[in-house]
What we know:
Layout: H1 14-28, H2 38-49, H3 53-57, H4 62-88, H5 98-109, H6 122-140, H7 146-158, H8 169-178, H9 186-197
Helix pairs in contact: 1-2, 2-4, 4-5, 5-6, 8-9
Amino acid sequence: xxxxxxxxxxxxxxxxxxxxxxxxxxxxAIGDVTLDSNDDITAARTAYDKLxxxxxxxxxxxxxxxxxxxxxxxxxxxxxxxxxxxxxxIGKVTxxxxxxxxxxxxxxxxxxxxxxxxxxxxDTLDKATERxxxxxxxxxxxxxxxxxxxxVLGTLADNDIYPVQSIGGEWSVIALAKSRKCSLPTRRQxxxxxxxxx
Length: 198
């Protein structure tokens, strides 16, 4: 006996048929799945879930919806994982960390806002960005005025950056030595300061 299509066994209520067709249109509208497909997929899923059992059985492209949901879930997991790994790759912040921090910013920006709370180490990126800005300021201080050095010294203190055991400690030594506020022997202070002035 030839198998009959599922709708042959259903009580075809006109409203169910129309509702099913509308859901099929929503599913077709999803198209290629990207991270921007969330709203379209959610709309199709919500509409499908509201259908009666009869109408659900009439939706001929339901598998397209489930495949889209799986593809979106994978894309979201991948972009979140990449952001976390790229942020972790920053490591210890030094004067040479600019490229790693920029890469981490790009990876984090690629994560949709609705998912950014799932990037569990985003605070690490914030702290690295702030710390690099301080280090870079100190690094550039050798070519600036004495007034600038007062600002640098205040920044050092505010950020708890001190020589030698700190991130960017070498620049702290230079800055503090030039200002004569570094806890080095006077001879070493003078030598370091003279190098900076050059």
